Amino acid sequence: MGNGFGGSDSTHLGTQNLPASERARLRVLVNDGFRTGMAHPPTPLIDNLVEGQRLEYADRHLVSGIAHDPDEGSLNPEQLQWAIRGPISATHMGNSITLRDLVPGDYTLTLRATDSSGLRGETSAGFAVRPLVVPDDPLPVFDGSCADGAYGDGVAVRLPRSRRTIDEGRWPEVRMLHAEGALYVCFADLGFGERGGSRLVGLQVDADNSGGAAAAGDIGFFINQDGIASQMMPFLGVMVSNPQPPAGYEAIIDPGATGWSAELRINETLIGGWEHPARLLFKHEVTDVLSDASNWPPSATHSMPGSWADVYFGALPPPPNQPPVANAGTDVQIQVSTPITLYLDGGLSYDPDDDPLAYRWRQTGGPTVALENPNRRLVPFTVAPVEQPTDLNFELIVNDGQTDSAPDQFLWRLLPRSTAGPVDPPTGHALYLPLVGR
What are the pLDDT digits (tens) for 29-56? Predict the structure, then answer.
């Protein structure tokens, strides 16, 4: 029907002289001068994660992916690549990915599928990781050891691993809890400094959650492997060391043969009280309190509280409700030569907050049909044979108990068996085909 088109060309293909058929297919071939391929990119699908979903920091959330290629069928796991973009960026290969240990904030997860000819398809979903929540727990034994059972339910953060940490087989982490008016912070599995350098650990808190540069309300608490405690405070827009810790701050270490741990007790009055949002930064494996070599979050800097992680001291309030999303499905056509039962299916609808959904279907166009219980996800109705193409239009709205979704439209196109053909333009119309270069 046409050849010799370039990457930015387009063409109109007339259908008026094509032979009659109940089914037609349009195929585009591309050639680079040596090889010819069919422009059929794969279609990937993300499962168990929906747009706008909120994840708790402590959750391990497994997301699956599949991809179908028109020419190759289902693609193999090694043809699927995941990309996480946000406060932490990462990539992964395979048909699933576990979302865990992500710094609180907004993210985009993208699944890319590549077929054997190099054609790619991708899909994405935006999600958020909620702030760390520091719970109220039983009072721990203040001895520098994190083996205390009270820390078992505390929020845990895996700290960045250096090459030396990996070689030594250590997994440094920090746990936090609140008990009897104080914040308890315990650092475990720490390594000693080399060549006489004394390593330190600690945290910095933006108590009023103001972000930006260092200012009043920002404070830091540290201790080194020799058991010497120190503090940080803001001065002219930067955080500086103060060797005299304030009253209400205590720290103790538990040294071992190959490593050490440290425990901090911070009176809640030093961090703005309790039951409020804040931001925080952890440091470890450094000998200089001003070093940003091994921070959590990894991209954070010590004098920019706006780059620190979101935390909530106390019980995190419920987030604002997000409206649900109605999905009535993809339009369908069918030949009808005898009475038949058809279905409306809203099973692809979802709520970002995972609230249960109520369904509401209604017909918006075409000959009236009787919907059997239009307030269900799956709604049957019966149609009789038709003598000419007939469109039945429907609308779905879902509700999460608080808010209606935007309506989503669905079309059933009924075709008489003798004249069944493509949904799109019947004979005599032109088909517009843009050719996009790779």
Answer: 555 554 555 567 999 999 999 999 999 9
Are 281 and 400 within one domain? no
Quick: pLDDT tens for 283-314: 998 988 889 999 999 999 999 999 999 999 99
Question: Going by C-beta distance under 8 Å and a sequence separation of 6 or more, which residues neighbour residue 19?
Answer: none
Q: What are the b/e assignments for 316-349, b being 16+ CB within 10 Å? A: beeeeebbbbbbbbeeebebbeeeeebebbbeeb
- Residue pointed to by tokens 């973009």: 85
* Parent domain of 159: 133-313
Is there a cis peptide before residue 298, judged by omega within 30 degrees of 0?
no
In this prediction the pTM is 0.79
**CATH number of the structural domain spanning residue 381:** 2.60.40.10
Cβ burial 136-155 (10 Å sphere, 16+ → b, else e):
ebeebebebbbebebbeebb
Number of domains comprising the chain = 3
The position carrying tokens 């429907």 is 394
* Position 243 in a domain: yes
List 333's β-bridge partners, or say none: 413
Residue 435 covered by a domain: no
